[in-house]
Amino acid sequence: MLETKNLSHQYNKSQKFNFPDISCQPSETLLVLGSSGVGKTTLLHILAGILKPTEGKVIIDNTTLYSQGSNALDTFRGQNIGLVFQKPHFVQAVSARENLVLAQSMAEQKVDKQRIDQLLSSLNISTRASAKTHTMSQGEQQRLSIARALVNNPKLILADEPTSALDDKNCNEVVELLLKQAETVNAALVIVTHDSRLKNIFSNHIELH
Amino acid sequence: MNLIKLAWRNIIHDPLNLFLNLVLLTLGIGLINFILLLNTQLKDKFEKNLAGVDMVVGAKGSPLQMILSAMYHIDAPTGNISIKEATPFLREKHPLIAQSAPLSLGDNHKGYRIIGTDHTFLKFYDAEINKGKLWNNLYDVTIGDEVAKTLGLKLGSKFKSSHGFTDDEDLQHDHGTLTVVGILKPTGSVIDQLILVSTESVWAVHDHDHEGHDHDEEEHDHDHEGHDHEHDGHDHDHEGYNHDGQDHDHGDHHDHSGHGHDHSAHNHQNDLSRAHLLTHEHKDITSILVRFKNKTNFQALTMPRNINENTDLQAASPAYEINRLYDMMGVGTKALQLLALLIAIVSAISIFVSLLNSLKRRKYELSLLRVMGGKPTKLLTLILLEGLILAVLGFLLGMVVSHFSMSALGGNLQDKYNYQFAAWTTHGKELLLFGGTIALGLLAALLPALMAYKTDIHENLSEG
């Protein structure tokens, strides 16, 4: 499902990141651990098709990510990769539900109301569907951002520090949601974090140095 | 969700900015269109009412004032001229003149000017009778379509004229009740707002007021006055007599067998022939409208100058004077247009700045759209659409404001000058203005849109 080969990225002469090869199958979870400054976000962006690596290949579902044109890459990302960020951001001008609609239309998918309703209710935010996102609590916002990552039934879910701002209770809740939802859509889940609490939950992890 | 909807939601997400942008745009576009509307219609009125008049002859004074009073009926005349002086231009067989019409101004009815003239006047405006007949008898009036409609006058309606050009009850003439005998078809020209009577009717009304029992040398006048005076003394008789007179008229008003006969018949019939008019050498008229047989003829071209240099009369060319008026108005109009353009430019800058500001605020949002699969061209389109929607809204509001202002001003002008202005018509330039507004909105949004196009997702999200 997800495979990388010889990935490295060089921002400038003094700063070069070399990444170990990664592999993650559908419904599997991979934890990428590392303290700040070791290139966690760089790796995540490379995996997400946002940042082209200086060297190496990323293969998702038999597609070599950076060998396609940039427009095709954008659409591929929208349809196949779901991203969850540390701090949830949304399009402020539209409601929670419409943020999910946007995720579908931006990826050039048909708007699937059923899928949206189902996600909203399984993440327990149906009642907040028409609220503007800035009026939602942090927990609600985090759940909505998971919903957004999942709305197009992606093959790969990438989570960037999804728990580091949360207390233990919420941390567990979010991890459980991520695992459950990734499993439902049969997606590979990669969590990039420095949160060592997660180490105990996931057996499959690599560390960046 | 399509981009138009998203752009719209983004715009209304910031109501204060939206308000500021729209106020500026509306003001700029409203002002530009208002000036265009007014200018187009003013020019249209001026040009339509040129009516093929090549020269106006009147008393010495301001030539523009003479043109405005004799052709547009919005200013006071420069003075009067005697029939004797005017005779050369009123003669029917003048070698250079195709047609001419004598005008006697000085009275009004409820603000609508009463013009003493003969039937040649109608030819200048291609006016035709709609109901009733043309004025033939003393105190008969034929009225323009708008006069009839606005004042609710019908065939047979009677009124008394007032002295001067504004509606003033105190200046009402005591003598000479005018009777509507005809209503003209609407022409769209100034004749719609005029009340036409015979030259002698104007004299008759005025002779009474100003001269009392004027023992005029000329029998016809004397006759008329005599009758009128009697009628006024015996009101009931007067009414009855008048009706009688009218009844007879229907039967015999075509039967002109000579003025002497007419007057002796005591039926108020009044000879409108030019030859008859010219017999009143010592009477006054106000001005003469002249159309040349050939206006490029050398003698015709030099005629106004000859008149101005060699006689006590003044001649002026309407086309020339109106162009001079345009030039004078042009300065004011240009200043206003410049101001409007300036406001439009400021509004474009305001749109530009507010889009740029919102872009800074929405940096992360735009990156999100990219992460969700949005192509750079989608972000470009989104921002351009935001500028476009503002422009379209501004244009629509500007149209509403300008047309309402025109409607208000039109009412005002109608009260003052009787000219009707259409507030709810369009002119070709509105389409051009629409194009200009769209271009302005797109131009203001172009740089922000390009910046959105170049959004560096990696960098924005890393700062996140």
Detail the poorly predicted runs of chain A. Answer: none
- Neighbour order of strands in the largest sheet of chain B: 3-4-9-6-8-7
The CATH homologous superfamily of chain A: P-loop containing nucleotide triphosphate hydrolases
- Counted by DSSP, the helix tally of chain A is 6
Largest sheet of chain B: 6 strands, mixed, barrel
Structural class designation of chain A: alpha/beta
Provide structural commentary.
The complex is a heterodimer of chains A (209) and B (464). Chain A is built from 6 helices and 10 strands, in the order ββββαββαβαααβαββ. With 209 residues, chain A is an alpha/beta fold. Chain A has one domain (2-172, 179-207): P-loop containing nucleotide triphosphate hydrolases (Rossmann fold). Chain B is α+β, with helices and mostly antiparallel strands. Chain B has 2 domains: 3-45 and 324-463, no CATH class; 55-316, no CATH class. In chain B, 59% of the residues lie in helices and 14% in strands. In chain B, helix 3 (63-72) crosses helix 13, helix 13 (318-361) packs across helix 14 (363-371) and helix 13 (318-361) runs parallel beside helix 16. Classes of the chains: A alpha/beta (209), B alpha+beta (464).
Defining traits:
heterodimer; A: alpha/beta; Rossmann fold; five-stranded antiparallel β-sheet; 6 helices; 10 strands; 23% strand; globular; B: 464 residues; 2 domains; 17 helices
